[in-house]
Amino acid sequence: MSSVTVRVPAKVNVQLSVGPLREDGYHDLVNVFHAVSIFDEVVAKESESITVVVNGKWSDQVPTDDNNLAIRAARALAKHAGRTYGAELIIQKDIPVAGGMAGGSADAAGALVACNELWGLGLPFEDLMEIAGDLGSDVPFSLLGGTAVGTGRGEQLSELPTGGTFHWVFALANGGLSTASVYAECDRLRAASGAQVPWPQLDDDLMEALGTGDAYSLGAHLSNDLQQAALNLRPELGPTLEAGRQHGALGAIVSGSGPTCAFLAIDALHASDLALSLTSTGAAHTAVAAHGPVRGATLA
Ligand code: C5P
């Protein structure tokens, strides 16, 4: 096989509950991931060494050196297989970079699936999940897709059944936010308040809303413990969230560590109306309608 193509979705967190800071610098989470229909594409081609080329909307913001998560994924896979392999990875980016939608994790997951195929390794999904967890907290979910609850630092996943398709609008911000700096701001806010940080708990009402496909109830139960920290770092997101609510969003939330804002719509038509309202009023410069859940990293 000389070329393999994999499509990988973005995610939104419908619940992100952040526990106390651990000794290893991470936080224990209850992280309900939901994969949505904004995709990066990763093509792996036969090559002498492992290299990456990034094309698409935000390609200039993606590193192509050793910091590139797709390169690190391909290297980790080769190491796991115990051999030296090469691949040229060509990434077509549609997921915002550093936007809180797991774009880098998607590319890593795509590289794992593509190189597993290109190199004829035939490694089982469980092995790819283990390698993914070492690459980053969100990479296993990019492989799995659907809707799932992540515990630990987010990498220990259980699939959640959902009772239908949910329709979303994502307002993209100019420039990204570093995940580490948003967690650090969250810790700073908590230290300043002096309140004890509770152990994160899965929201039963949210689970029921997902299970029955009730968008109204899901909208009412969206939650993100990182939201205040993201708003402190990017105050202009407050008016964007408010504009979405004014235009009838069932729920409005910062996606993960931000700065992308996610709005839950009633149906597909409402989502396209909402996207248009957000851009035409200037509340967002770009708004994209999408649906979820969708499958994780998949061979095209
Ligand atoms: O795992 P990943 O590399 O995506 O994490 C990026 C950063 O986000 C970590 O260095 C850490 O600062 C923060 N993080 C955290 N707790 C988690 C996941 C991520 O503090 N559960």
From TrEMBL:
One of its GO terms (molecular function) is ATP binding. The active site is at K11, D138. ATP binds at P96, V97, A98, G99, G100, M101, A102, G103, G104, S105, A106. Keywords: ATP-binding, Isoprene biosynthesis, Kinase, Nucleotide-binding, Transferase. GO terms for biological process: isopentenyl diphosphate biosynthetic process, methylerythritol 4-phosphate pathway; terpenoid biosynthetic process. InterPro entries: GHMP_kinase_C_dom (IPR013750), GHMP_kinase_C_sf (IPR036554), GHMP_kinase_N_dom (IPR006204), IspE (IPR004424), Ribosomal_Su5_D2-typ_SF (IPR020568), Ribsml_uS5_D2-typ_fold_subgr (IPR014721). Its EC number is 2.7.1.148. Pathway: Isoprenoid biosynthesis; isopentenyl diphosphate biosynthesis via DXP pathway; isopentenyl diphosphate from 1-deoxy-D-xylulose 5-phosphate: step 3/6. It is an enzyme of class 2 (transferase). The keyword rRNA-binding does not apply. It comes from the Bacteria. Residues 68-146 form the GHMP kinase N-terminal domain. Pfam families: GHMP_kinases_C (PF08544), GHMP_kinases_N (PF00288). Residues 206-282 form the GHMP kinase C-terminal domain. It catalyses: 4-CDP-2-C-methyl-D-erythritol + ATP = 4-CDP-2-C-methyl-D-erythritol 2-phosphate + ADP + H(+). Catalyzes the phosphorylation of the position 2 hydroxy group of 4-diphosphocytidyl-2C-methyl-D-erythritol. NCBIfam families: ispE, PRK03188.1. Belongs to the GHMP kinase family. IspE subfamily. HAMAP family: IspE (MF_00061). This is 4-diphosphocytidyl-2-C-methyl-D-erythritol kinase.
